[in-house]
Amino acid sequence: MSSTVDRSRRPLVIVSIMLATFMVAVEATIVATAMPRIVGQLGGFTYYSWVFSAFLLAQSTTTVIYGKLSDIFGRKPMLICGILIFLVGSALAGFAWSMASLIAFRLLQGLGAGAIQPVTMTVVGDLYKLEERAKVQGALASVWAVSAVIGPLAGGIIVDNLSWAWIFWINLPVGVLSIAGFILFLHESVTPREAKIDYAGTILFSISIVSLLVILTETDSGFAVLCPLAVVFVVSGVLFLWQERRAPEPIISIALWSRRLIATSNAATLLAGMALIGLTTVLPIYVQGVLGRSPLEAGFTLTMLIVGWPLAVMLASRFFRAFGIRRTLRAGSFMFPFGALFLLFLTPESSPVIAGVGSFLMGFGMGLISLTSVVLVQESVEWSMRGSATASIIFSRSLGNTLGATALGAIMNVGIAHYGSGELAARLHDLLNQPTGLSDLVGDPAIRNVFDAALHWSFWGVVVVAVTTFATIWLIPVADDAGRRAALKTDAQDAMTH
């Protein structure tokens, strides 16, 4: 297969890619900021975390399938198909009448979003030579940083001045423009080839993860419900591992993932993803419900997380040269839990600045961890396996996000039941299921204190996961000269971007 685009029109293809990337990248932060208002109108606060988990699960489990399908049918059909599915999910999500319907439509969004990141990165590889690719990838990376800053701001403005449905409908014109760009400017000739897609592995993986998510969400259910789910989780997990060992093209290569450096890097990335998504889902409702601040102020606390991340990435090459890759990685591992500790000092009288500082430090630490882990993993394998090794890091982060959103949301619900002593918990849920419920918490000190204590359980969960991330990173084997090699590689990339 080949993609043919006139050189003068390649920037138009990149603009289309940036639009599609922005549409998916902005989704996480804009929804996180608006979710308290959505829950207040739709009710169903118990399933708060499922709105995030459904999207992330569908996205992570379809990424590999879309990548392989693009090799068979071409990049453009898969991109257009994925964007259309995402737009249908977005349109329907704006009309959601309950939390159950919103979760279903978010799942549909995720099924489409799984196509966008892997296939757009492949298109860039098709159209640009290696020496040209660095600038393009840098531009695409900037989209994630910009969208993460714009997302909380846009979410706050929309829920304060418009219907919350517009946080989903705003995707429609962006997606249509992106599709039009691909139709008009991206041309390719496809040579069919045989490719065996591991559908069985994907289905078994999805069953296993979904059952785990339900267990974490329904922690207050009886033994009769949780026990069968646990059996499904274990059996499907074992069958998944068996399938991956025998599949010609498994979605997860057991041989690759079992290497110590890759296994520890993926474990650290998964844990870091859990902590960050926990922060993203819990912090906005604390700032609004306990501190009594606006959705816009809640959004800015998350913005600090994303400010720290790209700043660390920009400074990483200097850290590599000055301190070496081992010290850079371990410095990031220290800043990550250090930032999480700030969450424990939040009280109903605290300033949102404290939350912002903690978010910034966690983001800065994550920037160092993510970039350094990718460099180490890529340098540990030969060229023919570099794509799979890099994909394992992305997959681990996505899976960590999926698990973290559900687990820390479940901890919050358990905390509400524990501190609410029945009657207060019921009153808190009733209040949260009202459109202005979070803002009304400030006027009821008893319920506010219950919510504060319950959310601190989730903060403790973030801290524990962050500390576990710190410990796991110290298990990653780093060669003595890895810093020198990484610095040389980074210098070469810098030279290509100027």
Annotation keywords:
Growth Hormone, Chain: A; mainly alpha; two-stranded antiparallel ribbon; 498 residues; 3 domains
Layout of strands and helices, then pairs:
Blueprint (H helix, E strand, L loop, with lengths): L1 E3 L5 H33 L7 H24 L1 H20 L4 H29 L2 H32 L4 H4 L1 H15 L1 E3 L9 H19 L5 H24 L7 H4 L2 H30 L5 H29 L1 H20 L7 H28 L3 H38 L2 H10 L4 H4 L4 H29 L8 H15 L2
Antiparallel strand pairs: 1-2
Could you characterize what this model shows?
This protein has 498 residues and is mainly α. The chain folds into 3 domains: 1-192, MFS general substrate transporter like domains (Growth Hormone, Chain: A, Up-down Bundle); 198-248; 254-498, MFS general substrate transporter like domains (Growth Hormone, Chain: A, Up-down Bundle), CATH 1.20.1250. 82% of the residues lie in helices and 1% in strands. The chain has 19 helices and 2 strands. A two-stranded antiparallel ribbon has the order 1-2. Helix 8 packs antiparallel against helix 9 (223-246). The longest helix is centred in the last third of the chain and has 38 residues, at 383-420. The chain is globular, with a radius of gyration of 22 Å. The chain starts with a strand and ends with a helix. The model is unreliable at 483-498 (pLDDT under 50).
